[in-house]
Design goal:
This protein has 126 residues and is an alpha/beta fold. It contains five helices and five strands. Helix 2 runs parallel beside helix 3.
């Protein structure tokens, strides 16, 4: 049976890890604490699923052309793993901004933090 691969991208300290859930579900997790590291790994590993933390670009370098921390990664994902399912984890205060990202990319699920293992497991199984 082929192993399902998952990219887990969390850039803020203290963000919850769901490694035990992924392991229980038989998913091979690749965890990254920066977008650059995730993009560089895309060349050798094609994820089936991406679970990523959304950070809106409030007046920083994301604000001009990009909406968030994920734009460049998601453009690269289209090239290397176009069928990957994308699950976004977002703080309630930034939820409305994810809709802008959804206009550019097909998002499988948007989950508002804090996310329980049960919520994430449901999104992974659909």
């Amino acid at each position: 049976m082929p192993v399902c691969s998952l990219f887990s991208i969390t850039e803020t300290p203290g963000f919850p890890r769901y490694s035990k859930l992924y392991q229980r579900l038989g998913i091979d997790e690749y965890h990254f604490d920066s977008i650059r590291k995730a993009i560089s790994q895309l060349k050798s590993v094609k994820p089936d699923i991406v679970v990523a933390e959304f950070l809106y670009g409030y007046g920083n370098n994301y604000a001009g052309v990009n909406i968030s921390n994920l734009d460049v990664f998601l453009y690269s994902l289209q090239k290397y793993a176009p069928n990957a399912r994308i699950i976004i984890l977002v703080d309630k205060s930034e939820r409305d901004y994810v809709d802008k990202l959804a206009q550019l990319f097909s998002l499988h699920a948007i989950l508002i933090m804090p996310v329980t293992e049960q919520e994430l497991e449901k999104a992974l199984s659909v």
